[in-house]
Amino acid sequence: MALIGPSGSGKSSLLMLLGGLEQATGGQVKALGHDLATLSEDQLAALRRDHFGVVFQSFHLIPTMTALENVATPLELAGARDAFSRAAEELAAVGLADRQDHYPAQLSGGEQQRVALARAAAPRPDIVLADEPTGNLDASNGAAIVDLLFDLRARHGATLVLVTHDPKLAARCDRVITLTDGRIEESRAA
Ligand SMILES: Nc1ncnc2c1ncn2[C@@H]1O[C@H](COP(=O)(O)OP(=O)(O)OP(=O)(O)O)[C@@H](O)[C@H]1O
Ligand SMILES: [Mg+2]
Fold first, then answer.
1. Which domain does 135 fall in, by range?
2. Can you tell me the distance from the alpha carbon of 74 to that of 45, in angstroms, rounded to the nearest whole number?
3. Lowest CB count within 10 Å: 10, 42, 120, 135, which one?
4. What CATH number corresponds to the domain at position 52?
């Protein structure tokens, strides 16, 4: 599903609410059968950890951790004993097998976003929230990230909620929702 609309229309806000990263001051947010407002902080954290993967425009990697550590961390938090070997597999799947010991500052933007994608994908989330994931990348790196996102959806059956300004990219999604001034202006199947 793609979320489109002018700057300030509420795309990022909606994504944050859906992922339980921000609390709604009004209305109701239902995700995966839960009314998010009824969950405790711990329950919300567990829901995020077990079911959501998030990718941002500006990568949001932890600068003091290597690529491998960035990807392994959510797996460790979820209690996986093989976190580091799985993280290595995820990095290989995004073409970064030879970069796993690099720190974010030693990676290009495209490489950093691939690490972020591997990190989001590693716990096999049900829903991947991506907020303009190609916004800071040149065309060829952006296209590679988009292919990886759709590949993730195809391989693991994750629901993809993608904020984008790119109409061509939106058209690749099975539903396109247009926001204006915080409201849905149009919701159409592609
Ligand atoms: N935490 C917040 N509290 C109150 N208002 C906010 C908050 N975050 C964003 N806003 C406001 O809500 C509106 C929607 O912002 P949002 O960031 O969701 O837009 P957007 O559609 O993602 O825009 P862009 O395309 O520029 O990223 C804006 O007017 C913004 O100033
Ligand atoms: Mg935004």
1. 2-189
2. 12
3. 42
4. 3.40.50.300
The helices-and-strands tally (H runs, E runs) of the chain is 7, 8
Tell me the pTM. Answer: 0.93
State residue 47 phi and psi, 5-degree precision.
-60, -45
Quick one: which atom of ligand 1 is closest to the CA of 13?
A: 18
Q: Which helix (H) or strand (E) holds 185?
A: strand 183-189
**164 Cα–ligand 2 center, Å:** 9
Cα–ligand 1 centroid distance for 11 (angstroms)? 7
How far apart, in whole angstroms, are the C-alpha atoms of residue 103 and residue 54? 20
Task: Report the distance separating Cα 188 and Cα 190, nearest Å.
Answer: 6
Count CA atoms within 13 Å of residue 115 on its CB side.
31
Residue 190 has pLDDT above 80, yes or no: no
Structure tokens at 110: 């495209």
Domain count, the chain: 1
18-71 pLDDT, tens digit per residue, is 999 998 899 999 999 999 999 999 999 999 999 999 999 999 999 999 999 999
User: How far does residue 130's CA lie from ligand 2's centre (Å)?
Assistant: 10
Q: Which ligand is nearest to the CA of 165?
A: 1
Write the pLDDT tens digit of every residue in 140-174.
999 999 999 999 899 889 999 999 999 889 999 99
pLDDT of residue 172: 92
